[in-house]
Write a structure and sequence with these properties.
Strand content: 5-15%
Number of helices: 10
Radius of gyration: 20 Å
Structural class: alpha/beta
Largest sheet: 7 strands, parallel
Number of strands: 7
Order of helices and strands: HHEHEHEHEHEHHEHEH
Helix content: 25-40%
């Protein structure tokens, strides 16, 4: 069985057992139906296990989450004392929930505690989890900064920092928040960047946060289709629907996707 989000045409000839993973994690990967690592996993997992900084470019569906979650779980020093050893920063609540679930799945045979911080829900359950102590923290920038300012989050012992979907972080205007969060991390840490595109902005951000990173590119960087006409229109909030209606009524408006 191959998980739905994995590209079957790009499977490796290696098994996960060839990557030097421990039995509990191999059991979890087997539980999930994983047999062969994808190219990004084959390239990133051994380097991450060695403690290298990595900047990986790979399209959605190539197994990026396992590429950083598996080595993080291997490297965590789990014990009775719970502190944030790994921080994964991601732009949306949906991604945060997916990543948190992946850590729980891959770490099901380990004594590991995870916590996800995201907006749009009450913060009290998240605060209670933080007070109990967690090993892996997955967060969106806004909620993380909010709880940091309230004194509920201590990033002083983070060993591995992951910036997931770095390109979307830039697009969504999170750069200032990311820099504020990174300023609270230990200098001596491992940093992993995962992104669908390698834009100049991502390269610039990476240059300030990573040390001699391994470059992993398993597919050509994604680009915006050249047949899309992009425009910015400024309009009062009360008139947004009217403007949308006018655009859709225009004769040259073809097939339309509205977010």
């Amino acid at each position: 069985m191959i998980p739905d989000d994995r590209d079957q045409e790009s499977m490796s000839t290696l098994n996960f057992t060839d990557l030097g993973l421990s039995k509990p994690i191999l059991r979890a990967l087997t539980d999930e139906g994983y047999e062969y690592p994808t190219p990004v996993q084959e390239a990133a997992i051994p380097a991450a296990l060695d403690g290298e900084d990595i900047i990986a470019t790979a399209k959605t569906g190539t197994g990026k989450t396992a590429a950083f979650a598996v080595p993080i779980l291997e490297r965590l020093e789990l014990g009775n004392e719970r502190y944030i050893g790994a921080l994964i920063l991601t732009p949306t609540r949906e991604l945060a929930l997916q990543i948190d679930k992946s850590f729980r799945d891959y770490g099901r045979h380990l004594d590991v505690d995870t916590c996800v911080l995201l907006g749009g829900v009450k913060s009290e359950p998240q605060i209670r989890a933080l007070k109990r102590g967690v090993d892996v923290l997955v967060a969106t920038p806004g909620r993380l900064l909010d709880l940091m300012q309230q004194g509920f989050v201590d990033l002083g012992r983070v060993e591995t920092f992951v910036l997931d979907e770095a390109d979307r972080m830039l697009d969504m205007g999170f750069v200032a928040d990311v820099r504020r969060i990174v300023s609270e991390l230990p200098r001596d840490r491992q940093t992993l960047f995962f992104s669908a595109t390698m834009s100049p902005g991502v390269r610039s951000l990476a240059s300030t946060m990573l040390t001699d990173p391994l470059q992993v590119a398993v597919s050509p960087p994604a680009t915006v289709a050249d047949n899309i006409d992009q425009r910015v229109m400024f309009v009062e909030k009360a008139h947004k629907r009217d403007l949308l209606a006018d655009i859709l009524k225009a004769k040259d408006t073809g097939r339309t996707l509205i977010f």
